[in-house]
């Protein structure tokens, strides 16, 4: 009996939304993925950027890793490499590695007695109070929330940004929604499911710029700080989760691990989609250090660098451009890490157990600019 071909259905944005990305794929057994089926998945990813597979409760860590690796067969190292070995890295508390599939990490919230070879694991969901300069009062914490940190999954030092990230929901607390606050004077808010992952399109971000700004980002490059997640460990984020306050709290190079100048990343501001050829503005705003202009000059003043990038990116994280995924147990979400930015969101109660698996691999080649 012939197996029906998979179906790709674009997500239907809610009223008032202007997102133009996201799709759901049905009819694929990810444990036994054929080359033809993978070609469908890859094509869908680069056209829709965020892909949802429902009811994948039986998906093994091995199959998740193999699917992730299939987008870049020459890649094998975790996207952040060994940066997590440094206790000062802001990423260190967030991840646990599955013993029998070390390329796959466990993230979430609450106590997990046993899972995939991990025992007595205490997971801690990142909370904006640990990273933002100011935060929502504790007595309002379960009703209101913020974007934690808008980012691209990438070490941004030595290793190239992953092509794709896969997120798998093992257990999702349900029953509450929160009001997300921008708290930046605009009055903007967004109704979100508890613990959503929020996505915005780098392509929409680029398309929304003026012709002058498009030319600027198309011809400029970003230099990222060395060991950026240690460098930024003392700094604090804007209330929108988009970049850092310019308070001079970043660690000096003398307090960072040894720096190899050859490993410092200078990447295009816009990255070209390998299938459609369209451009996406892909900048990790918290890790930026300098802007290299087309004429060879360099903007070195960190405050000015942040002001420029914030002004370019902020319109595209307004509520109408955000896709907050409403997680259900068994959801597998793939996202084009070179075409979207994303953020952790939400504040959980201690007994609300959230258990997810994450996989991304440092790419074998750098992103291509315009």
TrEMBL record:
Task: Check the record and name the Gene3D superfamilies matching this protein.
Answer: Clavaminate synthase-like (3.60.130.10)
Q: Name one GO molecular function term.
A: metal ion binding
Q: Which residues form the TauD/TfdA-like domain?
A: 8-358
**Keyword vocabulary terms for this entry:** Dioxygenase, Iron, Metal-binding, Oxidoreductase
Pfam families given in the database record: TauD
SUPFAM superfamilies given in the database record? Clavaminate synthase-like
Q: Which cofactor does it need?
A: Fe(2+)
**What protein family is recorded?**
Belongs to the TfdA dioxygenase family.
**Cross-referenced PANTHER family:** ALPHA-KETOGLUTARATE-DEPENDENT XANTHINE DIOXYGENASE XAN1, DIOXYGENASE RV0097-RELATED
Q: What is this protein called?
A: TauD/TfdA-like domain-containing protein
Organism per entry: Penicillium cinerascens
